[in-house]
């Protein structure tokens, strides 16, 4: 398995009813995605529904705020599901609900307010429809985007593509220092993920490599002071990192008993503020579900 495959393990999407486990991560803004129901209704809690005035103020610096309607998510398509009417002019974002790469494209679509323009199609990776590889995306991975009679993939490319080819607030600032930082941080995402992953796999303490990677993000968060995000204001760089940070926070807390935000005030604030952004929280799964799935995958009890 590739080193990050544990983050993407295909599995049933029916989280068990919140058993008690002490996780130092907020659970209130997460969704449950029952696969078997024809239209899975998500629960948006007061915390998830609230966009803080501060976050709105930051978002409005570049563009008016987008108010996100509560969205019904479709059930995941399986090997027995018919394909959608492909290439009929509908723009479709193919995701797996548990996939952090797909989550990047999904957050982008939400941030731009494209809920009506880009339809979410969920694929059950554990029981993948054959037509997905044959007719949609030969790479057979998620995410992919069907748009203008073409299908494109690769999450970071899709974040850029959706940002540049659709309406909605720009997700990268114009400022040249920020653009430069964006490039550096985007180039660093895979290395960050690998550094964080390494300690999850090892039996020992959290490694120096992991600590250095976390400290690097803590320092990056201190660079621009016009907001708590990686470029100050919320941007596509945050979209690239958050799905992974979300998982690492859960896994480090639940598996290594290590709080990735401890002694890192910028990081703490970062996650707190991100959890006020509806475009992001609407894409989150239950921490307990993600933890159980990963523990099972890693053979940890
Ligand atoms: N580099 C790709 C990675 C996408 C990826 O690995 N997605 C996983 C799900 S999280 C997948 O589709 N796995 C299915 C497979 O590899 O067969 C991206 O950034 O989009």
Q: What are its keywords?
A:
Glutathione-S-Trfase_C_sf; Glutaredoxin; 301 residues; globular; four-stranded mixed sheet; alpha+beta; binds glutathione; 6 strands; 11 helices
Structural overview:
Belongs to the GST superfamily. HSP26 family. This is GST N-terminal domain-containing protein. Pfam families: GST_C_2, GST_N_3. GO terms for molecular function: glutathione transferase activity. A four-stranded mixed sheet has the order 4-3-5-6, covered by helices on one side. A two-stranded antiparallel sheet has the order 1-2. It has a domain of 94 residues: Glutaredoxin. It contains eleven helices and six strands. It is globular and about 50 Å long. A hairpin with a 2-residue loop joins strand 5 and strand 6. With 301 residues, it is an alpha+beta fold. The structure holds glutathione. Glutathione binds next to loops.
What characterizes the major β-sheet?
Answer: 4 strands, mixed
Name the poorly predicted regions: 11-24, 34-68
Q: What series of H and E elements makes up the topology? A: EHHEEHEHEEHHHHHHH
Count of DSSP strands: 6
**CATH class wording of the domain at 72-165:** Alpha Beta
- What is the helix fraction of residues, given as a range? 40-55%
> What do the pLDDT scores average to?
84
Strand fraction: 5-15%
Give the CA-CA distance, first to last residue.
Answer: 21 Å
Bound small molecules, deduplicated: glutathione
Number of helices: 11
Write down the CATH topology of the domain at 72-165.
Glutaredoxin
Oligomer state of the chains in this structure: single chain
Strands of the biggest beta sheet: in what spatial order? 4-3-5-6
From the 3D coordinates, which CATH architecture of the domain at 72-165 would you assign? Answer: 3-Layer(aba) Sandwich
Radius of gyration: 18 Å
